[in-house]
Amino acid sequence: MTKPVGFCQKIKLDHLDYIANKARNTERKKMYKILGEYLLSDIQGVRSRTQAITMLMKIWFLVDEEHEDLRNRASDILMSCTPQEKVILHWGMTMLAYPFFKDVAYEVGKLFKLQNEVSSHNIGRKMKALYGDRRRVEVARTAVLLSMKEWGVIQPIKPSIYTLAEKREVVSQELKLWLAEVIVRVSEYSSMPIDMVVSAPNIFPFNFSLNIREMDESSLSVNRQGLDIQMVGIK
Prior knowledge:
By secondary structure, this protein is an alpha+beta fold. The chain has a domain at about 100-165: Arc Repressor Mutant, subunit A (Orthogonal Bundle), CATH 1.10.10. The chain has ten helices and eight strands. It has helices at about 15-20, 30-40, 45-60, 70-80, 85-95, 100-115, 120-130, 135-150, 175-185, 195-200; strands spanning about 115-120, 155-160, 160-165, 170, 190-195, 205, 220-225, 230-235. The strands form three sheets. The chain has a three-stranded antiparallel β-sheet with strand order 1-3-2. Helix 2 (about 30-40) crosses helix 3 (about 45-60) and helix 4 packs antiparallel against helix 9 (about 175-185). It is globular.
């Protein structure tokens, strides 16, 4: 059985900002209507506009029940965060909504740990190994990389070759704990060593640290494994 892809076109930051600001206090039917009106001047084609609405709704509005609390907390954080911090929230919400995005981010992050440049071709090859050699996978790979470029986390240096933009420091305790929970939730594990959480390849654009004491009042649990390994999980 082939894995679903779903990510079919570039998503712009201002579109994500718009729906994130509206999601908590707008009824579903009205959300579709105002999104359609908002995107009318930016996306001319009806099909492309409909696809963008579907993606935006999946990221910030029609989230899986198990992720509703993360979305609600993200909405609260959004009210007081900087434009740079908003990218972190959009990144996390997109990973939760689209495993394909999360997997591309993981492969890009792994390559950036080894080298300064990443080619679209290499990412495409890795994604076809995971999702099948389909035209849809090529389209989605391009859409994810163009979204990352649009969000300012990677920069093109040659055709189809990208380098990492300056990493963004996650300073807010609330945002660090939120991002850590996203990382654990999109992983294949019930808990992860704290070092693996803060260095996860799929959050390659961001730098952050975790303090065990900061987690006391959070949704995260910390357990010692062996002499010096701290495991982070979900309470």
